[in-house]
Each structure stands twice: as C-alpha cells, then as structure tokens.
Amino acid sequence: MTPPLIGGAELLERAVGYALGSLLLVKPEVLGHPTPCRAWDLKALLRHMNDSLAALHEAVDSGHVGLEAATGDPAADLVAELKDRACHLIGAWTASTRSTVSIADRQLTGAIVSCAGAVEITTHGWDVARACGVNRPVPDELAEDLLQLAELFVTDHDRPDRFAAPVPMSCLARPGDRLVAFLGRIP
Length: 187
Known about the structure:
This protein is mainly α. 53% of the residues lie in helices and 5% in strands. It has helices at residues 8-23, 42-62, 78-95, 110-131, 140-153, 175-182; strands at 64-65, 100-103, 106-109. A 3-stranded mixed beta sheet has the order 1-2-3. Helix 3 links the parallel strand 1 and strand 2 (100-103).
C-alpha cells in the first residue's frame, strides 16, 4: 500500500469517487434535511463542498489558495456543478507536477493539500449520504488511509469550531466508523 502522503492525487481520486457515489442520492426534496455538520442543511453542505473543490482546484492551478469564500449562489443544480467540478479536479491533480501550494503565509506540499482535501471530500460524502437517510460506509482501505491523515490534520485546536469532539469508538470498529467518529460524527 502506498503511504497516504505520497499518493495524494490517487487518494484524492478515491475520495472523490466515494463522494460522487453519495451525490447520486441527492434529490431536490432532501436539500433542506439536516446533516451531521451542526447547523447545516444539505443545501449548505453542498455549497461548502463546492467551495472546497474550488479551493482545491485553485491550489493545483495557481499554487495559491485565497482565504475568501466564493460569493454568490452556486448554480441552481448544485449536484451537477459538484460532479463537474470534482471530475475536473481529479484531472487537474492527476496531471499536476505542483510541489508546493501557498495558503495565506504558509507553504505546504501539494501532497499535503491533496490529502487534506481527500479527508474533507470523503467526510462530506459521508455527511451527504446521512442527510439523504442512507448508511453508506467509507470503504475500509480508503478509511484506513484517511484516518492516519485525519489524526495529523485535526487537532484539539480545531475543536469545537471546525470539528466536534471525537465520538468514543472501539478500536475493533470498521475503519470508516472510526474515521467519522474521530471527526466528531456518530457512525
């Protein structure tokens, strides 16, 4: 198995594949449903995912990520826009030779940025499925790789603002359950 930080683009591709599967569950009547992300309904989560994918695309295209969120309302069909953006994102990262990305005053490796994106995209793919009323576990191998990364990327400093407190989970639980529990979600 490739260590997650070395295979950033490949890991991002697997994460996007999982999230795209969850997006197939979205119907107009569920856009107002609550998500595991506190205070967000599904429509707000889809907008956030769109912003996240745009930032990842900006990172690979320009080597820089602005800290301003996209303004305005995304296209009326959020799911179609997300699918399109996700496919373009994979193509851009797969073809990229970008070694560094600047975010504010920090320089990060492209692998770190793509791996952080993989954690976010997968987690929100899980959130989308839950908001649609479907239990869609993160595949075991993907979850194992992402759990290693999440433990590096998400610290106590990120809680409770960006992530809720970890949910206690047995070390014998499936990797996907351990991943989402670590990120403050109830599997």
